[in-house]
Task: structure prediction
Amino acid sequence: QVQLVESGGGLVQAGGSLRLSCAASGIIFRINTMGWYRQAPGKQRELVATISSGGNTNYADSVKGRFTLSRDNAKNTVHLQMNSLKPEDTAVYYCNVAKFDAWGQGTQVTVSS
Result:
């Protein structure tokens, strides 16, 4: 089975940084596009960023210039470096493998004013 495990969430003040990680198993990691989504209370889940097998990245307009997505194929892991965090970034962040519609359990990110 496909398994994704997110980690790295927590509480941070506005302007601070956080690094999220997603460890994947059950897939040939290196050939899969990976993504991060987030869901804030009362809102629909939204795409944050994606990274292709070749390392090409795409970001939501709301996080461009602040978030950086990378992958470590040797460790079957993707990382989301989040800088200059804002209260509106508060959400549960989920890792995703699009091809298999697979999701992790999520990690909570809370940004205080």
The first strand starts at residue 3 and ends at 7. The chain has a mean pLDDT of 96. The two ends are 40 Å apart (CA to CA).
